[in-house]
Amino acid sequence: MYDGGKIITGLVIGVGLLLFPVFYNAGKAAKAPERVLTEKAKAAQKCVEPISFMKTEHMKMLDEWRQQVVRDDVRYYKSTSGKEYYKGLQTTCLDCHSNKSKFCDQCHDYVGVDPYCWDCHIEPKENQ
Amino acid sequence: MAMDRRDFLKIAGLTALLGIGGKTGFELLAPGAAEAALKDIPLTAGKKWGMALDVLLLDEEVMDACVEACHNHNNVPHIGNPKEEIKWIWKETYDHAFPGQENEYLAEAFKKKNFLLLCNHCTNPPCCRVCPTKATWKREDGIVMMDMHRCIGCRFCMAACPYGARSFNWGDPRKAPKELNPDFPTNREFPMRSMGVVEKCTFCAERLAKGLFPACVEAAAKVKPNALIFGDLDDPQSEVRGALRKRYSIRRKPELGTGPNIFYMI
Amino acid sequence: MLDKALKGSPRYWGWVVILLGLIGAGFGFYLYQFSEGLKITGMSRDVSWGFYIGQLTYFVGVAASGVMVVLPYYLHDYKAFGRITVLGEFLAVASIIMCGLFVMVDLGNLPRMLNIIIYPNPTSILFWDMIVLNVYMLLNLVIGWNVLSAEKKGMPYAGWVKVLVYISIPWAFSIHTVTAFLYAGLPGRHYWLTAIMAARFLSSAFCSGPALLILLCLIVRKFTRFDPGKEQIHTLGSIVTYAMILNVFFFALELFTAFYSQIPGHMHPIVYLFAGLEGHSRLVPWMWTAAFFAFVALLLLIIPATRRKIDVLAVACVCVVIATWIDKGLGLVIGGFVPNAFDRVFEYWPTFPEIMISVGVWATGFFVLTILYKVATSVKEEVAV
Fold this sequence. Notes:
The complex is a heterotrimer. Chain A is 58% helix and 5% strand. By secondary structure, chain A is mostly helical. In chain A, strands 1-2 form a two-stranded antiparallel sheet. By secondary structure, chain B is of the alpha+beta class. Chain B has 9 helices and 10 strands. Chain B is globular. Chain C has a single domain, classed as Formate dehydrogenase/DMSO reductase fold (Up-down Bundle). Chain C is globular. At the B-C interface, helix 3, helix 5, helix 6 and strand 6 of B face helix 5 and helix 6 of C.
């Protein structure tokens, strides 16, 4: 093998760099944040769909909602519970979950996602 | 999951009738309640929305009220730089609103008079034709709509629009000067826009859905009733058609074949 | 073959480092634009496209260098061009890369760029322009690379390459036509709303592309042991001559229509560009510079005695490049927006960051060109030995 030594050294350095974040962060896992509900959300007792569904599917649902509202002018959502809801991130979701920094951001930060909803949609005024 | 269009219109109409638009307009209807058919609510069933502006009634006070109401409702900030200004509805003099129609013997009253300009919601809109992503498109009810989630900011629509009705967010609207926008965002129930997308008048589609008139029309009605007449151009019985039957009206650049749906009754 | 690009003289490496430095600087300014928005450019709600889209338009034209050597070689069996087809094709590749980058830096929301593919709108010319430009780039890259590797191995290239060649010829016409259609179909933009726009794009492309190719051939001849050939350069010179005559003639047709008809909308943009309108005259010196260089170019090209002198031909080509660059890179786009939809005059001029981002894109294009030409000339030198 030509330049065998160089190639192997290069490979070792490359793999090392690639794995650096793994070693660097090993044993430093942050604690998963707790879900924090406002009084209003607690009182309502349920979201538009069951909690388990909302936990895993809210992003898909919001994506569908924005598509249907903006593009098809379909503005009401019929929940599996039979109730009708107005599809609105600011007006419906955050009306209950007005603690955006806790309810949304904490978990999004933890999983390292940065949804661009808030580029346009207005965060609720939180009393801090 | 989704309701069909008719159900939705009924619900929207009912909400309007009960006067419960806005913040409380959700979580109100038990299933079946909308069956109290409300298909006669005019503002949720348009086929071709349009507007007639009575130029004789349009004084500065009305126009300013319209501009303010629109920009407050839609969170349109003042940028403070004419090159980057965002306009959904704005004032313009006759010779610039109707270039090519001016003449030196124009009636005195028209020479200095301002006109109120907005998106023409064209029947054949060139902006929609050129948009590479269908981020702007013509709805079935005639509204030329914008999807700010999808716009990539290529600004082809701005080159295509012969009415200058489209504005681009050259910077971040959140960074608009505070001294010009002390209360921005003015409407916390409506979003604003992100940097790098195009925006324009939407005839307040989300208000129409609740059975409310566009913000400008509502504001004008408070100052001078009938200055702005909004309605369904497809419906011969509509107020706007009645007004257009009685008065001579002109449109901006009709020769381009775009079919503008904003009429100026002179 | 790419390894050829890794072995070069200090001068070659110096040039590569300069280009990489400019790319880095341009990228830095782009990051600034990305965070602040397009407000850091000179563009406005009135002149909503500017320098970037102008450069896109110009370099679509330069990409014609490919077809102008390929067409005579393959369709007219003009053997002499066999030596330089790959140079024409690689210049086309570098040009289209610049076009793509200029579109990307012009977008308000680059991360959403793929929406053009995810939600395509077939009535949008921009959608079609993206397709024709990308396919043209791939065609030229694949054809050029395969023909060159065959030449290196001393074997004839594969049959399917020839099929691609025949596709690439009409395809080249499509890129200029479709790019012209970006402008020519917009109601209310009088300077652009002209049926001859596509023909102007073709004529402008067929002179600006080969003119730059001649200059590059002369550079290659000076700095490498590969000689593109005298006859080849002279034939390219004739192509530039005919195309430039047509280019100027077509523009004269625009002048006649506008000024004989006396329709204000048609006259105003031209008056703005060449004389100024309502006291605004930023582009006037530029447009007259373009006119002057176009005139000199025509003079030097049409007279056989001057055209046949390689040095003079080079000067003529520089004149063509300057004239066509001002015409398409500045005048065409800006002229379309002045006066605006309200018959008001708002001027545009690129800002420093805007120029630096453009320099970064040019440097990227020339970097790609340098690498590809290095490979091509090294192979040609090797084969000649």
